[in-house]
Amino acid sequence: MNLFSLTGKVAVVTGALGLLGRQHCHALAEAGANVVVTDIDETACKAFAQELSAKYPSAIGVGADITEVRALKRLRDEILDNFGAIDVLVNNAAINDMFENPTTAAELSKFENYPLELFQKSLHVNVTGTFLCSQILGTEMAKRGKGSIINIASTYGIVAPDQSLYRKPDGSQTFWKSAAYPVTKGAVISFTRFLAAYWGERKVRVNALSPGGVENAQDEFFIEAYCKRTPLGRMAAPTDYKGAIIFLASDASSYMTGANLVVDGGWTAW
Question: Can you give the pTM of this predicted structure?
C-alpha cells in the first residue's frame, strides 16, 4: 500500500472549489499530500484549505485565473515559497456550458445558433488554461526530473454527446449539449499524449482521467435516462474518482504515461 502513499508530496488542484475539485483535494490529502487549493476566489480557497489542514497534512489556498500567465507565476512562486517543490498537478478547472435562462437555452445551445464567444471562452479556459498550468507549474517538475500531471478530460472527449438524454418525456428538448465541451476535452486528451512524450525523458508522467457523469440534482428524467445508458446502472457519486486520482498521482502508476484512464461506469463500453 506504500505505492499509493503521497506523504510529503505537494499536489496542486485547479478548479478546486468545484464539485469534483473538492473531492480531488480530499483524496490527495487523505493519501498524505500537502494540497494547494486554487480557484478564482482566493478567500474561498483559503477557507477550504483551512478545512483540509484541520484534518490532514498542510494545505494552502491561492486564488488564480488559470488563463493569466502572471497569476500562474504568482501561484508557482507561492507554492515554492511554502513547500519548495511541486510533485502533482491536477488540471481540473474547466467550463461546462450552463444556460441560466431556460426560455433561451434550447435555441442558444443548438449548434446552428451556438455563440462564438461561448465557444472561444471554453477553448480559452479548458485548453489554454490546461496548457498554461502545465507549462508554468509542470516546468518545475521537469527541472527536478519527476512529477505527475493529471488532466481531467471527459467521456465526451472520447464519444459524442447523446442528445436524447436532454429530451423530456413529452418529447420537447430544452437543452442541447454544445460542441465546446467535447471539442475541448478531446483536445485535452491529445495534449496529454503530446506532453507525456515530450517530458518522458524528464520522468514527468502525464495522464488524463475521463470521468463519466456525476449525479448532482439534475432533472429526474435525465438521471433515469443516463442510468439506463450506463452498464453499471447509475451515475457517478462525487467520491467515485478519488481512487483514480490517488492512483495516477502516486507511484502505483509509475509506469503509466500518455494514457487516458476512463472511469465511467461503462458508458463508453457500448
Answer: 0.96
